[in-house]
Amino acid sequence: MVKVGIVGGTGYTGVELLRLLALHEEAEVVAITSRAESGRRVDDLYPNLRGHYELAFSEPDVRQLAACDIVFFATPHNVAMNLVPELLQAGARVIDLSADYRIRDPQLWSRWYGEPHASPEVLRAAVYGLPEVNRSSIAGATLVACPGCYPTSVQLGLIPLLARQVVDPMHLIASSASGVSGAGRQAKVDNLLSEVADSFKAYAVTGHRHLPEIEQGLSDVAGSPVALTFVPHLLPMIRGIHSTLFARRVDTSVDLQALYEDWYADEPFVDVLPEGMYPQTRTVKGANRCQISLQVPQGRDTVVVMSTIDNLVKGASGQAIQNMNIMLGLPEDMGLKQVGLLP
Ligand SMILES: NC(=O)C1=CN([C@@H]2O[C@H](COP(=O)(O)OP(=O)(O)OC[C@H]3O[C@@H](n4cnc5c(N)ncnc54)[C@H](OP(=O)(O)O)[C@@H]3O)[C@@H](O)[C@H]2O)C=CC1
Ligand SMILES: CC(=O)N[C@@H](CCC(=O)OP(=O)(O)O)C(=O)O
């Protein structure tokens, strides 16, 4: 069995890792940290895990974590970048769900995250964990930076168009909407039921910290700079992201439905829907799956792509386990065969 440690086990991505790993045939969680809940059993805090774990939360301890084969960080940004160098040196392999190692340029990272990067030398060794783009580098990586939730839905939706150069890379638009679990489990007035329910709003319109991450990934695929207008919205539901993506066609000779179907034909977790079927957040809820469809309304020059994921699964913990499977040479879908919950 592969020994797994989780730093930050009380947040939504931490408990989602536990839920998914409970049914993983090759992984055993041997350490899970929380400073606030140290000593408490995980199935006392999260009764859905009763019968699956005997574990209790413990204080983060690098020596204990270094004895694990794989350590997941499900912590806010600015935590992993302080602990990871020592863990790597001790021989553990790390999968970071936070943003600490996602952006290659430490200065750009600082500009969006508001503080200097604590381990820029390690940043250079990190592999961006979007398997549909970087599968072979992930296999040999010691440190994988899992993509953000919005960046997963936006990149998977736009990659075929940019890779085949059928749209203008300097005029991309993403209008994305997320359920409230995307904001994490910490108490905030903005996320109260009475603030969120029965309402819908945009936020961070002048610039969201996922913008540089998305532009970095898309320009790698396009082989040239890209410019994206990204507008996130908060949806009055718990899980799910729906991204509606707009791009201007520069090459109208390509059959776009065929392009997407071919591009993702061998991808176990990307499902291109038949023409006319639209993705919904509820059909990917609980599943490690991105569903995509596209249209060219009125046959004009704008392509509209719709992309949905569960922010906690393909947008975080499911994708993290997909990365673990690739790193360990296990079947990529091990522990990830859940079907979406509907209704
Ligand atoms: N929610 C989502 O949909 C997604 C989240 N992510 C990212 O995953 C990460 C975790 O998110 P989420 O689960 O929502 O977060 P939460 O805020 O809900 O949980 C944070 C966890 O980290 C622990 N933690 C906080 N500070 C420290 C510290 N200094 N040292 C050690 N542990 C610490 C907390 O436990 P304690 O304080 O008790 O130690 C808690 O268990 C974030 O970086 C987030 O951006 C990525 C994709 C999607
Ligand atoms: C709804 C909501 O608040 N979403 C979060 C999404 C960010 C997130 O979860 O962070 P990472 O994906 O970078 O780890 C936000 O906009 O800040």
TrEMBL record:
<keyword id="KW-0028">Amino-acid biosynthesis</keyword>
<feature type="active site">
    <location>
        <position position="149"/>
    </location>
</feature>
<dbReference type="InterPro" id="IPR000706">
    <property type="entry name" value="AGPR_type-1"/>
</dbReference>
<keyword id="KW-0560">Oxidoreductase</keyword>
<dbReference type="InterPro" id="IPR000534">
    <property type="entry name" value="Semialdehyde_DH_NAD-bd"/>
</dbReference>
<dbReference type="InterPro" id="IPR023013">
    <property type="entry name" value="AGPR_AS"/>
</dbReference>
<dbReference type="InterPro" id="IPR050085">
    <property type="entry name" value="AGPR"/>
</dbReference>
<keyword id="KW-0963">Cytoplasm</keyword>
<comment type="similarity">
    <text>Belongs to the NAGSA dehydrogenase family. Type 1 subfamily.</text>
</comment>
<dbReference type="InterPro" id="IPR058924">
    <property type="entry name" value="AGPR_dimerisation_dom"/>
</dbReference>
<protein>
    <recommendedName>
        <fullName>N-acetyl-gamma-glutamyl-phosphate reductase</fullName>
        <ecNumber>1.2.1.38</ecNumber>
    </recommendedName>
</protein>
<dbReference type="GO" id="GO:0003942">
    <property type="term" value="F:N-acetyl-gamma-glutamyl-phosphate reductase activity"/>
</dbReference>
<feature type="domain" description="Semialdehyde dehydrogenase NAD-binding">
    <location>
        <begin position="3"/>
        <end position="141"/>
    </location>
</feature>
<dbReference type="Pfam" id="PF22698">
    <property type="entry name" value="Semialdhyde_dhC_1"/>
</dbReference>
<comment type="function">
    <text>Catalyzes the NADPH-dependent reduction of N-acetyl-5-glutamyl phosphate to yield N-acetyl-L-glutamate 5-semialdehyde.</text>
</comment>
<dbReference type="InterPro" id="IPR036291">
    <property type="entry name" value="NAD(P)-bd_dom_sf"/>
</dbReference>
<dbReference type="GO" id="GO:0006526">
    <property type="term" value="P:L-arginine biosynthetic process"/>
</dbReference>
<dbReference type="GO" id="GO:0070401">
    <property type="term" value="F:NADP+ binding"/>
</dbReference>
<keyword id="KW-0521">NADP</keyword>
<dbReference type="Pfam" id="PF01118">
    <property type="entry name" value="Semialdhyde_dh"/>
</dbReference>
<comment type="pathway">
    <text>Amino-acid biosynthesis; L-arginine biosynthesis; N(2)-acetyl-L-ornithine from L-glutamate: step 3/4.</text>
</comment>
<dbReference type="GO" id="GO:0051287">
    <property type="term" value="F:NAD binding"/>
</dbReference>
<dbReference type="GO" id="GO:0005737">
    <property type="term" value="C:cytoplasm"/>
</dbReference>
<keyword id="KW-0055">Arginine biosynthesis</keyword>
